Amino acid sequence: MAMRTLSNSIDAVLDKALSGDALSSADGRRLAAASGPAETTALLSAAAALNERARPERRVTYSRKVFLPLTNLCRDRCGYCVFVKGPRQRGARTMTPAEVVEVARRGAELGCKEALLSLGDHPEARHPEMRETLRAMGFRSTPEYAAAMSKLVLEETGLLPHVNCGTLDREEAAALARWNASMGIMLESASLRLHEPGGPHYGTATKRPDQRVATIAAAAEAGAAMTTGILIGIGETPEERVDALLAIRDAQERHGNIQEVIVQNFRAKQGTRMRSAPDPSMLEMMKTLAAARLLLGPEMNIQAPPNLQADGFEAYLLCGINDWGGVSPLTKDFINPEAAWPQTDRLRRLTREAGFELRERTALYPSLVLSGAWARSPEVASRLAELTDNEGYVKQELEQWS
Fold it and tell me: How far apart are CA 24 and CA 7, in angstroms?
């Protein structure tokens, strides 16, 4: 009786989610407050059950990718980032077109299907050195350069680009959408409190939630599917995590182009303002993943990066996720360079042991491949047709060759 009373506080919320009704902000806060073994078990079980309703075949996807860090210059300085460098710092670099093609070709030879192009947000707005670099290569802006490199990668290697270019206006989004299977921008958090002095986003130019949602909207107008997500452990409260997830749900209801939501755990790094901050626990991560599934519904693709929890990440499959994200056989995670990708064989084995089948996808999720709604570029659509089967996954023979 005591255990039933303990879990009663969220029973109604879980029943509401499982019945297909959208959860409210108050419901989300009840999920965020779940504690103790009974409530936590009920939360995870409901999320897993909701996921299985949409995916009774119990498939979990991943993308075999190569990571192309086009430039690590940026106009922002977040309190947790080691990717970004100043132009005079050791390690600052911008890839040349020849370097981009060379790495992309090596990735293609290793069976990659996706090229993840990651870069700082409009560094030319802060650094005259970047303006000169762009001018010397014949470009006016970093997004223009990223669009040209996306085109080059697709045409020269057959890899499908997915670009994370920061905030974009309509013109920039349209230029990138032509050559990308999908694009991405992390919401990270909806909390303006994190922008106050001492916060991780203090002094940044592009981390306000309205700017990030506006980029999702611009991409929708350009016909591009988007990846977004939240970053947990940077000083936000559990309630603020709920706010961020609901902001994403609202953006999806308005624009319809969010193909996946990543729940990413912060990892403290030397050399940053947050080097002494604690990493979120495994339990925090699991509860947040479960809340994401329940708040965002059964159809949304929810991803958890396996390399950011080296041991035990397979437990995330108990929380309602259905994707592992990109895994590279060639390049490191330049955002989290200390966190090695798991080998594909290990990822497949652990996924199978948890009762799921691992399937390779492209940068565009299978359901969106089949719908054709977000692959409007003829060049991208043609390459997707070559790579995917009648269910939208990478063809088995191509997957097995990898």
Answer: 19
Q: How far apart are CA 228 and CA 303, in angstroms?
A: 10
Exposure letters 144-159 (e unless 16+ CB within 10 A, then b): bbbbbbbbbbbeebbb
For residues 394 and 378, what is the distance between their CA atoms, to the nearest angstrom? Answer: 19
pTM of the model: 0.96
Question: d(Cα 387, Cα 298) in Å, to the nearest integer?
Answer: 26
Whether 10 shows a pLDDT value over 90: the answer reads yes
For 379, the enclosing helix (H) or strand (E) is helix 378-387
Phi and psi at 96, nearest 5°, equal -85, 160
Dist CA 351 CA 346 (whole Å): 8
Which residues are paired to 115 by β-bridges?
Answer: 66, 161
Task: Enter the tokens of residue 169.
Answer: 């206006």
Largest CA distance in the chain: 73
Pairing relation of β-strands 258-265 and 226-232?
parallel
Backbone angles phi, psi at 162, to 5 degrees: -135, 115
Give the H or E element holding residue 210.
helix 209-222
**CB distance 72 to 92 below 8 Å:** yes
Residue 6's pLDDT is 40
Q: What pLDDT shows up at residue 2?
A: 38
Give the whole-angstrom CA distance, residue 359 versus residue 227: 19
Measuring CA to CA, which residue among 350, 344, 298, 346 is closest to residue 321?
Answer: 298
User: What single-letter amino acid sits at 331?
Assistant: T
What does the alpha-carbon distance between residue 285 and residue 283 come to, in Å, rounded to a whole number?
5
* CB distance 76 to 48 below 8 Å: no
DSSP-derived secondary structure letter, 14 = H
Distance CA 231, CA 57 (A): 29
Q: Give residue for tokens 């590279």.
A: 328
Phi, psi (5° rounding) for residue 241? -65, -40
Token pair listed for 131: 């303006």
Give the C-alpha separation, 343 to 222, whole Å. 35
pLDDT, tens digit (0-9, with 9 covering 90-100), for 328-380: 999 999 999 999 999 999 999 999 999 999 999 999 999 999 999 998 899 99
CA 286 to chain CA centroid, nearest Å: 17
**Domains of the chain, CATH where assigned:** 59-401 (3.20.20.70)
